[in-house]
Amino acid sequence: MLDRYRRAEALHIARQGGLVHRATVSPNWEGDSFWYRVDTAEGPKCFRVFPETGERREIDDPGVAEMPPPEITGARTSPDGRHTVTVSGGNLVVNGEPFTADGESDHAYGLPSDQGRLPIVALQAGMSVPPLVEWAPDGRRFVTLRVDQRHVPTLTMTQSCPPDGSPRPLVHTLHYEMPGDPLPTFQQMIFDAETGDRVDIAIEPLTFTHDAPLGVGRVWWEDDDTLWMLYGTRGYKAARLYRIDARTGAAEVVLEESSETIMNSAPTIVESPLVRTRGDEVLWYSDRSGWGHLYLYVNGELKNAVTEGMWLVRDLVHVDWDAREVFFVSGGHGSNPYYRRLCRAGLDGTGVTMLTPEDTDHQIAASPGGRWFVDTHAAPGQAPVTVLRDATGAVVTELERADLTALEKAGWRAPEPFTVKAADGTTDIHGLLHLPADFDPSGSYPILDSIYNGPQVTRQLRTTLRGFPIDPFLLDPAGGAPMFAQLGLAVVVLDGRGTPYRSKAFHNVSYGDPTAALGIDDHVAAIRQLAAERPYLDLSRVGITGHSAGGASAFRAALRHPEFFTAAVSSAGDHDHSGYYAIWGESYQGPPPRDYTGGSPLPLAGELRAKLLLLFGEMDDNCHPALSLRVVNALIAADKDFEMLMVPNAAHGYGPAEAHVLRRQWDFLTRHLIGQEPPAGYRIDPTFGAAK
Questions:
Q1: What is the domain range of residue 663?
Q2: Name one Pfam family in it (predicted).
Q3: Angle in degrees, 0-180, between the axes of helices 517-533 and 549-560, rounded to the nearest 10
């Protein structure tokens, strides 16, 4: 096992920078050309590209230093750099001058609610929470908000090991709304950064949970005098679009739509809305037809559907109001429903043209004017390729082809895509199978289900999150499946019913089912089918692991299918939704009144047969430790054996303790799933290679 541990450590996601080269491109547009910086095996290189001719020329590094992000500076600066907004003592400060005087910690200007800003995580990471601000095109005025959470119940956590070494634990308290609780409210206002003039927006205080609209791309300026806000009602049962006169603060509701389940304004509630506006026209996203599509409204009245069919719009890339066309990314136009394709459609609904013929997943970045598109496309077993396309989809030039040489030398093996039936016997579900580098088809391999199963995102998501690429086809940052495979496991990654990016009916399976039980059943059905086709998969040794919603799913799966799972690693789980974020239970079970205790795993603790490792952080202000300790309490009451590790000082991630927590997972799976003893004294490099 010693060699296997070494091979697993070599494929930790933190090592991707040294193993994967030329895989991502972020264009920086300057007039009619753009430049980009790319990591190569020889070090970073820079290239300038001239789209009109297709010329790609290596250049010296422009030396453009990335500005420290607002999470470090705690400031929001106007696009022209003339004005800077910060928050002090709950009040706005602009260019060093106080702009408000009546703010307070629980009724502050500019700041998110406690749930939205995760104050303990920010404190531990040395981050400053930047104000929520959107600048007008003139770079002079900005819209912000004031959040009132004085009436929101609090959550208290104890820090047993203060960083100053004091033996006396510290107490941390934050506002934390649970399902059915009073919610924080917000009001919005517009300030002139030069004069201090203030215009209050004439909308009554609105409730929200976790994220106010201003923090998630739901407030935008159309011009210097017009502001729009898309508001989701409690439980996201309805979406309401306001048009605001920035000169007076007057507001009117232009458009509203509701749903029996969730009124999505994008494929999921965690994404920026796919709604665009100009004058009296609104390009609106809705899944009313059973699939997520675009609709054109004029003066609040439906003019026509822009897209339709048994597929969905995944993202908006560019809207050309003058040319009357929209460029967007679709899902479902290929062999795999999760593969994205670049498409164009007329705003009059004249039809959809697919611009990327490759049956792969396409990640698109558009030029400011929408004439050019940088497209990085990939599939399992195919190295990512980045090309420049014009507005017809024609390839102008190839920019980069990923170099996976070092990755393959480290023992990486490309995942195998598969399609099987859900537990209903009819619905197709898709996934990836990761096998160890020394895989032998005549051998026998324990199975590890790397699960997430949350209703708001898929486990197979290929995207860029806050500038960080997430690619499950390579090192799988979301779960590290290739790393776990090196231990000698066959690792399964899949998305069952109840998860997004398919039809509304597919997603609605999890509505009212807080445990996403049918999605768990789909995992069991899928693994059984895979084993029937692949004799090397050992159904007598099936484990499951997950973090956050995946941690809760892993524990629930072990209780729901005690005859199937023999080992489970549950990390930082939101185990009981009645005590978790209000946005979660209220959005996926419905707003109050509801019984949010339904689906709690606690009454089923006596069903546990699998070996269980329960992990969580003492200072987790997302899935707070009481959620896991209630599980512990129920297991003790049922007199069940299990292993537990509560990490002092750790938030929703394990920070400096990550290497230890990971090694404990490896040891647990080696003993209870693989059936061997872990290598004695093995220690994972706590820097994961960064110190070398």
A1: 413-674
A2: DPPIV_N
A3: 70
Encoded tokens for 605: 């603790």
Cis peptide bond N-terminal to 593, omega within 30: yes
Q: What is the DSSP letter of 263?
A: -
How far apart, in Å, do the first and last CA atoms of the chain sit? 24
Q: H-helix or E-strand containing 664?
A: helix 658-669
Give the residue from 238, 218, 207, 216 showing the smallest Cα distance to 582. Answer: 207
Q: CATH number of the domain that 200 lies in?
A: 2.140.10.30
Residue 674 near residue 487 (C-beta atoms within 8 A): yes
CA distance 365 to 146: 34
Distance CA 531, CA 335 (A): 23
Interval 520-533: pLDDT, tens: 999 999 999 999 99
Residue 351's pLDDT band, with cuts at 50, 70 and 90, is confident
Is there a domain that residue 296 lies in? Answer: no
Is the whole-model pTM more than 0.90? Answer: yes
Instruction: Give the integer Cα–Cα distance in Å for 86 and 76.
Output: 7
Under 8 Å CB-to-CB from 467, ≥6 apart: which residues?
A: 26
E strand or H helix at 551, and its extent?
A: helix 549-560
pLDDT tens for 253-299 read 999 999 999 999 999 998 999 999 999 999 999 999 999 999 999 99
Residue-averaged pLDDT of the chain: 95
User: Cβ distance 547 to 459 under 8 Å?
Assistant: no
Total domain count, the chain: 2
Identity of the amino acid at 597: T
Amino acid 90: pLDDT: 96
Tokens representing 201?
Answer: 């927006």
Q: How many DSSP H helices and E strands does the chain contain? A: 13, 42
Give the Cα separation of 659 and 674 in Å (integer): 21
CB atoms within 10 A of CB 19: 24
Q: Name the DSSP class of 403.
A: B
Q: Could you identify the residue written with the tokens 């030396």?
A: 63
Strands 84-88 and 91-94: antiparallel
Residue 441 φ then ψ, to 5°: -60, -15
Report CA-CA distances (Å) from 389 to 51, 352, 367.
9, 18, 10
Residue 358 lies in a domain: no
DSSP state of 273: P
Is 80 exceeded by the pLDDT of residue 536? Answer: yes
202, 229, 264: which is the final residue of a domain?
Answer: 264
